[in-house]
Specification:
Strand order of the largest sheet of chain B: 1-2
Strand content of chain A: under 5%
CATH class of the largest domain in chain B: Mainly Alpha
Number of helices of chain A: 12
Shape of chain B: flat
Largest sheet of chain B: 2 strands, antiparallel
CATH superfamily of the largest domain in chain B: Tetratricopeptide repeat domain
Helix content of chain A: over 70%
Number of helices of chain B: 12
Strand content of chain B: under 5%
Shape of chain A: globular
Order of helices and strands of chain B: HHHHHHHHHHHHEE
Number of strands of chain B: 2
Oligomer: heterodimer
Order of helices and strands of chain A: HHHHHHHHHHHH
Largest sheet of chain A: none
Distance between the termini of chain B: 68 Å
Radius of gyration of chain B: 26 Å
């Protein structure tokens, strides 16, 4: 990795830590330990399921909020504080700035997810008193969640490269929600038959991120395996989609008039 | 005012205002006892809820399952006869997560038995289990549960036998399903069959609540058999002496009994008015059909897990 990208990425990570982003781990720990202790008393026979479902859902939702809210400010905040001009006056290309920002935020989310994963497994051990072979699939679900974050980070950066933070947040959240419905959109495309409507809806299904394929929380909670081929293609899809969004961000930011 | 004084004053005011707000809210709650709407499903369509869950349907299913447990538990404790939200809550739970087996197993147990032990909704229980079989065709417990409900709550022995028979074809099914399917033709309606079903329930689960429930039913069946036999002896005594015995000791003295029999809790049976035989403490043994005073209203069964040793 070239030096400017590495420096921008590490600075983005440090800034996120300085902004107390990792404080969400405290809320996560409280949520999970509370659930592990209380659910057994108010429900029947779902302690393990709740720890996995709640744990992974919280990892996902906390991460989505961080990815969007930090991501949308990555460019605009630098412009507002005028630090962007200092950075770009050095031998740093605009594309390097975007890639560095993306890697810094992705790194923050990966570290955050790793801490949360430790919490999920600790809570699981607390309620089940042992680990089972099927618990290994939880790691796949966590990996898919990280892939979701990469997509959302890239999209947030894309919107941040040309829009205000408020509009970027609206766009990114809207795409997150549409992405969760992407399989319904695909089903809708299938019933439109052929013609212009079909082409438009099919085009839309490829344009919006398919986040539902990256959500295997419920199935791994039941210990159901995830096909290796799905892991491979989800990885390829997520990396390519994030790369497309990043390319878009670079193209827009490269042409943006910063005066 | 200097800074430490500001801190102390502000902190004190914060605590006072917060405590005041709690007290005020408690008064408001006291004036509006029915303000919390518990018997309401704001979104009753399972499909809509599944869409709204944004893919976090497993977590939402856990929440709805907990709600179903709380709903049944609360109404059961208050001896309710209407459980209007139970079936919709279970339908939402299982639509959100069709593999949540616990919702089928316990949910059917909540729905099927007649009040005061359940909601008396055996048709909905059968629908629930059939939906479970549709989504988990290789779980033999569900076929067993289906046969059980047909047998116990519907007295539909043909469908019960068919359910057990279907269960025998599932890979790794419990071998006893074959025995149950075979015995059904010969012993449908017998106490022997009921005992076999509850024994299978006890032996095929690790869950202490289900095991406790099975033990309580087995005890009730034992009492039913004992009371039937003892009342026959009382009738014989009456035939010989022309009057009812005052106590079971009279039967021992007459040579009809070797000793005074005891119920499953260890208490001796007693002779009540008109020669009826009753248990000493019916509240200690739920699900009794015989051996209780006329018009006896059983309390809701509780702490059945304690029966599992």
């Amino acid at each position: 990795m070239s030096s400017p990208i590495r420096h921008i990425a590490s600075n983005t990570f440090r800034e996120a830590v300085r902004d107390r982003v990792l404080y969400n781990l405290i809320a996560f720990a409280l949520l999970l330990s509370g659930a592990a202790i209380l659910v057994g008393q108010i429900s029947i026979d779902i302690e393990r399921l709740v720890v996995v479902n709640l744990g992974l859902s919280a990892v996902s939702l906390f991460g989505v909020v961080i990815a969007i809210f930090i991501g949308i400010g990555l460019v605009s905040k630098e412009i507002e504080k005028r630090t962007l001009y200092t950075v770009l006056s050095r031998p740093v290309q605009r594309w390097q700035f975007i890639i560095g920002k993306f890697l810094g935020l992705a790194g923050t989310l990966v570290v955050n997810t790793l801490f949360m994963a430790v919490g999920v497994f600790a809570a699981l051990f607390y309620v089940a008193h042992k680990f089972e072979r099927a618990d290994g699939w939880i790691l796949v679900a966590l990996y898919f969640i990280i892939l979701q974050f990469l997509i959302l980070c890239a999209l947030s950066l894309l919107f941040s490269s040309f829009s205000s933070p408020l509009l970027s947040a609206i766009f990114a959240f809207s795409l997150f929600i549409i992405g969760c419905f992407s399989e319904d959109l695909r089903g809708f495309a299938a019933i439109t038959g052929s013609g212009l409507t079909h082409m438009l809806v099919t085009g839309a299904t490829y344009l919006v991120p398919n986040l539902s394929a990256l959500n295997v929380i419920t199935s791994v909670a039941h210990g159901q395996p995830v096909a290796p081929i799905l892991i491979l293609y989800n990885t390829i899809y997520a990396l390519l989609y994030a790369a497309v969004a990043l390319c878009g961000a670079v193209l827009i930011f490269d042409r943006r008039n910063l005066k | 005012m200097n800074r430490p004084n500001v801190t102390i004053t502000t902190t004190t005011l914060l605590v006072v205002f917060f405590v005041g707000s709690i007290l005020a809210l408690r008064r408001v709650d006291g004036m509006r006892p029915n303000a919390t709407l518990q018997d309401v499903l704001f979104i009753s369509s399972p499909k809509v809820l599944k869409r709204l869950s944004l893919g976090y349907d497993g977590l939402l299913a856990d929440i709805y399952w907990t709600r179903a447990v709380q709903y049944f538990g609360e109404r059961h404790a208050h001896r309710a006869s209407q459980y209007s939200l139970l079936a919709p809550l279970l339908e939402i739970t299982t639509t959100l997560d069709p593999h949540l087996l616990v919702a089928y197993q316990f949910g059917a147990n909540f729905l099927a038995p007649a009040p005061p032990y359940g909601a008396g909704m055996s048709k909905q229980a059968i629908d629930l289990i059939n939906y479970g079989i549709e989504n988990n065709p290789n779980d033999w417990h569900l076929y067993y549960q289906l046969g059980f409900i047909y047998y116990m709550d519907r007295k539909d022995y043909a469908n019960a036998a068919a359910a057990f028979e279907r269960g025998t074809k599932v890979p790794h099914a419990h071998p006893f399903l074959k025995v149950l399917a075979a015995q059904m033709a010969q012993h449908a309606g017998d106490t022997q069959m009921a005992r076999a079903l509850w024994t299978t329930t006890y032996e095929t689960t690790e869950d202490s609540q289900i095991r406790g429930n099975a033990i309580a039913h087995l005890r009730a069946l034992q009492v039913n058999d004992d009371v039937t036999a003892l009342e026959k002896l009382v009738s014989d005594y009456r035939g010989k002496t022309g009057k009812n015995p005052d106590t079971l000791s009279d039967l021992v003295r007459a040579g009809l009994l070797r000793s005074i029999p005891r119920d499953p809790t260890g208490r001796p049976y007693k002779v009540a008015s008109e020669g009826r035989v009753e248990v000493e403490a019916p509240d200690e043994m739920p699900f009794l059909e015989k051996g209780v005073p006329p018009g006896y209203e059983p309390p809701p069964p509780k702490d059945l897990e304690k029966l599992v040793k």
